[in-house]
Amino acid sequence: MLLFIVRLLGLASLLFPGLGFAQPAAEAAPSFHIDLTHHWAGYFSLVVMVTAYVAAMLEDVIELRKSKPMLLAAALIWFVISLVYQQHGSSLPALTAFKSNLQAYIELLLFIMVSMTYLNSMEDMGIFHALKVWLVSKNLSYRQLFWLTGGLVFLLSSVVNGLTAGLLMGTVVVAVGKNNPRFASLACLNIVVATNAGGTFSPLGGISTLFVWQHGMLGFTQFFKLFLPCLVNFLLPAALMHFALPKDKPSAENAEIHLQRGAKRVIFLFGVTIVLAVSFDTALGLPAAAGMMAGLTLLQFFYYFLQKSYHVKGRYNVEFALFFNADGANSRSEDTRFDIFEKVGRLEWDTLLFFYGAMMGIGGLGFIGYLDTISQVLYGQFSPTLANIMVGLSSAFVDNGTLMFAVLTMHPDIPQGQWLLLTLTLGVGGSLLAIGSAPAIGLLGQAKGLYTFSSHLKWCPVILLGYFASIGVHFLLNAGSF
Fold it and tell me: Which residues does UniProt assign to the signal peptide (predicted)?
């Protein structure tokens, strides 16, 4: 059968040489680059990209998922680029550039896919629900809960997706502060600041840090130089908000904590997976995504073990397949419980496809030449420090992952200290407004009426103070990196 397929492919390459089997001929095609910044294709691509991003920002208003306009924009941009290059003799340069951007996205996609699959598994096993119940039942004061939720989410967001960590702590705050709007509003704001700060000093904390690590601008351990600046960014606003908090205690709620069999081992395997990702990158020179995929196999085999031992031990009447949510427990079928691909299917595919469109669209604009022009203005006419601070401030309006990829595509010639500064400003700059980061947007929906855009805006000067304080601490501690 294999021999038949090989012969069939060989016959097809002879009859239809245009199918692309003749690789040597394609590689022999001339390689060149065309400046399209003043060409109709460049203007068209620029308008398409800006329109798509505006549509994505107005997702809630126009009720159109943000991935749709971005996917369309990426397709149109690369279509016109390839068309123009083909008219000039060869589309090979465009093809090479497209594949380079596609590879960067695939590495990011695989990394996030494995990470979120583990998080979905932990959620199914009741780990996050157990943490929420434990926090609510501690009979702490509002001020103690404010610091505890902020501190936990600061640490948690360094290894867990920021949106997941923020919503988890948001659930605790809403449950405890439903009768005290002032506490709920301040605690949600504190969670947003802490989540963004905690996700900045670790390459695993967010899309922008993943981009920097993935492109080799900073090594894995170099990110931890930002720990103290990020801590200051979280502590300074929190300390000032502390005095506006109520001093009394909420009523305690007691609930039983359930963890499914294997929950602790899944946490352990997730830790092993992170170690594999770092080891593959630092020791072997392989993409971190390769280590994450190796870790996914561990989870798959562990679920296979759980499924088989579940049948052997006859636990049908003893062990319940529980999926915990904010309301309690909701039954899930046994097949769904042990299906790893069901957990993959529950990823935030709209967000992942949005980043495909954003990365490919920005990559297209970079290939056209627009990003080189912006880079010459931003990093040529201004100092790198001022440029990075301005880029960080703009992340209050524009997604930081998109901005980081745009800067990486510009290829600015800046030292390690400036890459650390850019990582810091882009990571914590999103805290300035309630629309500046995924955790804030998620909490706007989760804590409706308690945490609002205006309640966040009121504390913007305090957050801005923390922003510049963290920059000052970075220059003080990491002066040798510049």
Answer: 1-22
